[in-house]
Specification:
By secondary structure, this protein is α/β, with parallel strands linked by helices. Helices cover 44% and strands 15% of the residues. It is built from 15 helices and 10 strands. A 5-stranded parallel β-sheet has the order 2-1-3-4-5, sandwiched between helices. It has a 5-stranded parallel β-sheet with strand order 7-6-8-9-10. α4 packs antiparallel against α9. The chain is globular and about 75 Å long. The mean pLDDT is 98. The structure holds flavin mononucleotide.
Length: 459
């Protein structure tokens, strides 16, 4: 069979993910896996329609499609996201329709779930026959058992095509709204109280809802709000994954475009950062994603510690739980407060005015009050993954991360929590005695509460 492999690594064939594909190819020589370097060639695919159509022709003549990519910042790389946008822009979705498909990623399992959910949704939108996804840790290939599982997954994909096995969809289509926002006049402006509020927006049409929402936000605050259109930020391309930044946080593109300079001088000092975007397919735009990916020159260092991060979104976010999780995850992983999200889904201009004004007021209030809510599983779990990786596997090459984590107490391993470790040991010794075991068992509920009750009484 002929299988089109859409390679999402910006590194092209010098890629970890591609080694997984090559391994599968070696073990299944009866099939032809045609590697198409989507992310690496994205600028060519954007500029040259023939190059793009050649890729689509490969998809058309294939018996199946493998989406193979590295995780990049909660999703696929911006270059790959751009390719997905182009499928609809260039009206070639029919080439994918009815094709058997599967998804494989390599990563360190940081928000691999959201990337896979996204790709599954895209496959469903393209009316493809989705078999199974496979989220490999980047080093799984070194392990015999994990290689066996990988080959089973690949074999199942080929068998599904041969047998024309039934498949089902996981996601309903996303239905966009038709509402056109007409902002009213601002009655009383909010005092920004000296907070630096920076909006990074993707605006291609000044009459769009997103443009009007961003302007409304700015108008509702007396001063201190700056809007930056991500289209005006000179970025020569998406993150290349080259890791030239890993030693000292200096991007490969430093003297080639303005991104690093822009980020360091305009965005880094924000008290409130707002990302504003339309929804494109099941995510925000690939241009904002490019901005997020390019911030990776800072490695795994949280970028907005004790600051505010919020979002202004135009489009059906309520239908995209996966994207909601990513927005919150991004704020929490920046060590910021997830200030909130305003969307235009209410479909009523007066109500949207009120929502934006209220959101602006919250941004200022939370920022001045240094209000940072506790992180959820997204931030707590994400931190533990980064902490463990920077401690060992990624310590080299991510030297700048290691230094930062060490200096900022971010290696907060539980084995250093001496109080609980020692307490647990004492109690464990105590309950070896069967009598004490019964006594302690009876007291567990009430004893456990004592400390909490003391705080309630005394604070
Ligand atoms: C810019 C950038 C962003 C990344 N983001 C994530 C991420 O969000 N989650 C994750 O688990 N791994 C992330 N990684 C790690 C890669 O997914 C992983 O190293 C992958 O195996 C690289 O594959 P490749 O060599 O095929 O590009 C990121 C790496 C880079 C360079």
């Amino acid at each position: 069979m002929k299988i089109a492999v859409l390679n999402g690594s910006p590194k092209g064939e010098i890629s970890v993910t591609v080694q997984y594909i090559k391994f599968i190819q070696k073990k299944f020589p009866q099939h032809e896996l045609k590697l198409l370097n989507i992310s690496h060639e994205i600028q060519e695919l954007e500029k040259d329609d023939k190059a793009f159509q050649d890729v689509i022709a490969e998809v058309e003549k294939s018996d199946g499609v493998i989406w193979a990519f590295p995780l990049y910042v909660f999703l696929v790389a911006s270059q790959y996201k751009r390719f997905i946008e182009m499928i609809w822009e260039k009206k070639v979705a029919d080439a994918f329709k009815g094709k058997y498909t599967c998804v494989i990623s390599t990563s360190i399992h940081f928000f691999d779930n959201t990337a896979h959910n996204y790709m599954r949704g895209i496959c469903d939108d393209l009316d493809m026959k989705f078999t199974e996804s496979f989220s490999a840790d980047m080093d799984d290939i070194f392990n015999d058992e994990k290689r066996r599982i990988l080959l089973k997954w690949a074999a199942d994909f080929f068998t599904a095509i041969e047998k024309q096995s039934p498949t089902s969809k996981a996601y309903a289509p996303v239905v966009p709204g038709k509402f056109s926002y007409k902002p009213g006049s601002v009655k009383s402006k909010i005092d920004s109280q000296g907070q630096r509020i920076k909006i990074l927006a993707d605006i291609t049409d000044s009459n769009s809802n997103i443009a009007k929402m961003v302007n409304r936000f700015k108008d509702s605050v007396k001063e201190g709000v700056q809007i930056f259109n991500v289209r005006d930020v000179n970025m020569k391309g998406g993150c290349l994954g080259c890791m030239q930044c890993a030693f000292d946080n200096i991007c490969f593109y430093k003297d080639k475009d303005d991104f690093m300079e822009f980020f360091n001088t305009e965005m880094r000092d924000a008290d409130v950062t707002i990302f504003a975007s339309e929804i494109k397919d099941r995510f925000i735009t690939s241009r904002i994603k490019m901005f997020w990916d390019r911030r990776f020159f800072n490695g795994h260092i949280p970028l907005n510690i004790n600051k505010q991060i919020g979002f202004i979104i135009s489009g059906p976010l309520g239908q995209l739980a996966n994207l909601q999780e990513i927005l919150q995850g991004l704020a929490e992983m920046s060590d910021a407060n997830f200030t909130g999200v305003v969307t235009d889904e209410c479909g009523d201009s007066a109500q949207l005015d009120a929502l934006i004004d209220d959101f602006a007021a919250k941004c200022v209030d939370y920022s001045t009050q240094k209000y940072v809510r506790p992180r959820t599983f997204l931030g707590v779990g994400g931190h533990k993954i980064f902490r463990d990786q920077i401690w060992a596997r990624l310590r080299f090459p991510f030297q700048a991360d290691y230094k930062f984590y060490a200096e900022h107490g971010m290696f907060d391993f539980p084995q250093d929590d001496k109080r609980y470790v020692e307490f647990s040991q004492q109690m464990t010794n105590m309950i070896q005695d069967p009598k004490m075991r019964d006594v302690v068992r009876k007291m567990i509920k009430t004893e456990m509460l004592k400390g909490y009750q003391k705080v309630v009484e005394t604070k």
